[in-house]
Amino acid sequence: MKRPAIKDYLRESRLFNLRVGISLALVASLALILFVRLVYLQVVSHRHYATLSQENSVKPLPIPAVRGLILDRNGVVLAQNFPVLTLEITPYQVANMKALLEELGTVVTLNERDLKNFERQRRSRPRFESLAIRTQLSEEEAARFAVNRHRFNGVELRARLQRHYPHGGLAVHALGYVGRINEAEAEAVDKAAYRGSQHIGKLGVEQSYEDILLGEVGAEKVETNAHGRALRVLERIAPKAGYNLYLNLDIKLQAIAEQSLGQYKGAVVAIEPKSGAVLAFASTPTYDPNPFVNGIDTESYQVLRDNRDKPLINRALYGRYAPGSTIKAFLGLAALEFNQDPERTVFCPGWYSLPGDTHRFRCWKKDGHGAVNLHDAVVQSCDVYFYQLAVKLGIERMHSFLSGFGFGAKTGVDLKGESGGLLPSPAWKKARGLPWYGGETVVTGIGQGPILVTPLQLAAATAALANRGVRLQPHMARGFIDPKSRELQLFEPQPLEPLALQNDEHLEATLRNLTDVVHGAGGTARGIGLTAPYKIAGKTGTAQVKAIGQHEVYVEGAVPLHLRDHALFVAFAPVDNPQIAVAVIAENGGHGSSTAAPIARKVMDYYLLGRDRPLVNVPAGEAD
Predict the structure, then answer these.
(1) 616 assigned to some structural domain
(2) Looking at the structure, do residues 335 and 394 belong to the same domain, yes or no?
(3) What domain count does the chain have?
(4) CATH number of the structural domain spanning residue 188
(5) What is the dihedral sign for C-alpha 613, 614, 619, 620?
(6) 387 shares its domain with 532
(7) Domain with 496 in it: what CATH number?
(8) Is 104 contained in some domain?
(9) pLDDT above 90 for 553
């Protein structure tokens, strides 16, 4: 039988007491360490951590600056700011953003676009910054939220200023608009300058003069409680409002230009020759920029984007058109500069062929003009004369001369994204691996073929003629004024390389020819000159859209509207003291004489006489 083990109670007692002692020593050591740390935090580092604690309850909040106004040359407001109610969320005060947004959506309407914009802001903005989730709340929505305010920690109803364009689509392609900052812009801009701001200039003057209009952001230090609710403002640095920008545009003249284009797609650009000031900058059709300020909805944008008339395109700045016979105003001067006898006559049978070639380049007048000299060719817009002139001058000399007027290059206007047009040359084609053909020289002489110009280029070149060869950079902005000091600072005209002419009399002779286009017995624009109380120098143009085969006959009524010729007209007035130069392009408008010239006349009448006048019918038989 096995005996039971005898326990050593004394030994076990000693072991137990040892373990208890070690445990007590360990607890005492930890307590001592905690006490020392507590003394360090509460006594030694009291001031440091007290400051940090205070800073945790004091939040720096940005105060966005008031964006500067945009006004026309007469002080009419074109872009302004008006107060709207905005619902804003401060992310750091929200424990569960998803739950908050779902609950908030039961009180006010939150669509998918609102949520996407808010999420984009959250990714790019500091968590303590207040971010808009809805703008332009109705009074009913604002009241509904105010009643339920206690349910939404971190959400505030604020009054903010929003950009507004009181004239809607009028001058939209000149003004542009502001819109919400997208992700690419958020990476590119100075984040400090845009703290508290969610908008930036997107197009036009709003974009080009963003630095002047934006202003400087302010800040305030706000003491908050444990729930993030503001208790008091400790310090405030006032924001500096943006400068008010004055344009050279005359908004009434702009309205005349847009209205005169009517249903035609096209552009009207008017420039003051002596300063380069852009007086009108019309592109039609237009669109209302106001929906773009807070983000236009997808359906509305698709309607604009897919519209066959392309209202979003700034035709005055980006549109590239064949200049048609308006180019003859400049090549007529080239003929004199390159010693072509102005009295030499050319017989126009209604067509022209290069030596040794049977291809016929037709004149707009089917039966021809008969014998014409330079004066007759400009006044009657004889194509055959300019076909032959182009061959005599050669494409290189034409390219060199026309580039002196700024064709083929950007004008330097103070708008971003300007097109430079296209002034063709053999070198240009060679760079593309293609040969230059003699027929291209021929058609360039009447502004057809590969040559392309913008309405702004045409207006600037016409202003150079009016200004007797002195060229100035077109300028949209007139100056800016500080809303505090009220000091107006004007922008100085920027001179460009003047025309290098051999003989000033050549220019005067050209201007006499252009004056007879409007006031002469056989002038193609005689219709607008019949009752004009001032002298106008101008040139009509018709740019072919659809190519016509050698054995085809162009019948305007039988051609679909979108394939009909473009109508062009360039002019300036008064001839002896030019105050306005105008370029008009009416897409698919047919003849420059019957469509584009009357538009220019209305624009010049309003600017020079202070009132618009009825359109003048063009006598039958005159075209181009």
Answers:
(1) no
(2) yes
(3) 2
(4) 3.90.1310.10
(5) positive
(6) yes
(7) 3.40.710.10
(8) yes
(9) no
CA 169 to chain centre: 13
pLDDT tens-digit map of 433-447: 999 999 999 999 999
pTM (predicted TM-score) = 0.84
- Token pair in block for residue 524: 């193609």
Q: Taking the mean position of all CA atoms in its chain, how far away is CA 33?
A: 68
Q: Are residues 329 and 241 in the same domain?
A: no
Tally Cβ neighbours within 10 Å of residue 141.
Answer: 17
- The answer to whether 220 touches 574, Cβ cutoff 8 Å, is no
136 lies in the same domain as 163? yes
Q: Is the pLDDT of residue 554 over 60?
A: no
User: How many whole angstroms separate alpha carbon 333 and alpha carbon 406?
Assistant: 15
Q: What is the pLDDT of residue 611?
A: 58
Same domain for 105 and 75: yes
Tell me whether residue 318 is exposed, middle or buried, using C-beta atoms within 10 angstroms of its C-beta: 0 to 12, 13 to 18, 19 or more: middle
Q: Is residue 363 part of a domain?
A: yes
- How far apart CA 509 and CA 269 sit, in angstroms, is 25
Residue tagged 């400090």 (tokens): 192
Reply yes or no on whether the pLDDT at 617 is more than 60. no
- Structure-block tokens of residue 585: 């392009």
- At position 137, the amino acid (one-letter code) is L
The count of other CB atoms within 10 Å of the CB of residue 589 is: 26
pLDDT score at 618: 42
Whether residue 226 sits in one domain with residue 269: no
Q: Do 307 and 337 belong to one domain?
A: yes
29 is catalytic: no
pLDDT in tens, 13-72: 777 777 777 888 888 888 888 888 877 777 777 666 665 555 556 667 788 889 999 999
Tokens for 590, please give them: 């047919």
**Per-residue model confidence (pLDDT) at position 619:** 44
One-letter amino acid at 136 equals Q
Contacts of 334 (CB under 8 A, 6+ apart): 393, 397, 398, 401, 402
Amino acid at 14: R
Assigned domain for 107 exists: yes
Residue 16 to residue 11: CA distance in whole angstroms: 9
| 556, burial (CB in 10 Å: exposed 0-12, middle 13-18, buried 19+) | exposed
Between CA 339 and CA 316 the distance in angstroms is 35
Tell whether 286 and 202 lie within a shared domain: no
Domain end position, chosen among 247, 276, 296: 247
Catalytic residue, chosen from 208, 260, 275, 325, is 325
| Residue range(s) defining the domain that contains residue 273 | 251-609
Q: Where are the beta strands (DSSP E) in 349-468?
A: 351-352, 361-362, 370-372
